[in-house]
Amino acid sequence: MDTIRIAIVGVGNCASSLVQGLEYYRDKGPEDAVGVMNWEIGGFRPSDVEVVAAFDIDLRKVGKDISEAVFEAPNCTTVFCPNLPKAHVPVQMGRVLDGVAEHMLDQPEERTFLPSDATEASREDIVDALRAARTEVVVNYLPVGSEEAARFYAECALEAGCAFVNCIPVFIASDPTFAARFEEAGLPIVGDDIKAQLGATITHRTLTDLFRKRGVDLSRTYQLNTGGNTDFLNMLSRDRLASKKVSKTEAVQSVAAERLDDADIHVGPSDYVAWQDDNKVCFLRMEGKLFGDVPMHIELRLSVEDSPNSAGVSIDAIRCAKLALDRGIAGPLFAPSSYLMKHPPVQVPDDEAHAQMEAFIRGEASAQLK
Fold it and tell me: pTM score > 0.85 for this model?
């Protein structure tokens, strides 16, 4: 089959895990594809995804081949496929906009993005580059809080005629105006905010759903997360955290038997610990009442490498976007978004979302209904 031609916006840790994964699974089959949720989607395997364009604003990455740039500082994720073949895809200069928080400029070079002295790309430059590379799907990996920049690249995707996979908590697929524009343009979009393969949010949702199904009254809960990658450093600026907290909180609230009062639920990134690098640690507590109003609680500590935990999910989202392009499906992809994203246009329990995702892959029309 043909490859799926993608452009990556933001060559950070998540992009590094994605690019490594495309090569790592190239010589594997379904029997030894550890960690892959769906070996084939519409006939496409993980290695059928091809990076044809990439954009960043850090001069340590700009101009370098994507196979080299993914290992440049401040990237600090696990290197599980170190010998990437040259892709002959240089990272191009993008647009800064709000992609870099002001407080990041005070951080040491090895921990943050460097503001570039080079001339930023214009919208016309980005669109021309996407078209020249014959890009089919744009994957947004910008830092959390990049509201203006995320919308800029979504606009570029629309103009260039590309599908869009929004992996960050800026609401685009779940924004009715943007959703309508992608539908009118005949382009699919999957979003918003990638849901890790087995991370804090999916674990919290699963336990919340278990409380509901087993008749346990959930009284209050918190999810506290720490990490040492650039995303956690970026989120020290609390004004960049608003959409992230909404996304993670709603992901949990949506599967609870009854919505918790704001004072009884706290979900979100909590602090930056430099030596953790790309390791994310989640501290989860849930308090409830069993039969006879007898109290109970769960305490859980989850430790995961953050970026590989999302890369396989991104590969599924990319392949779903390509499948929709081939099938002429436009606008938000409701089933894949509900299964793969924290803040989809429509929230449903994960077991139902999984069934809808499988129906979408099989091509059943009902899977694309709201």
Answer: yes
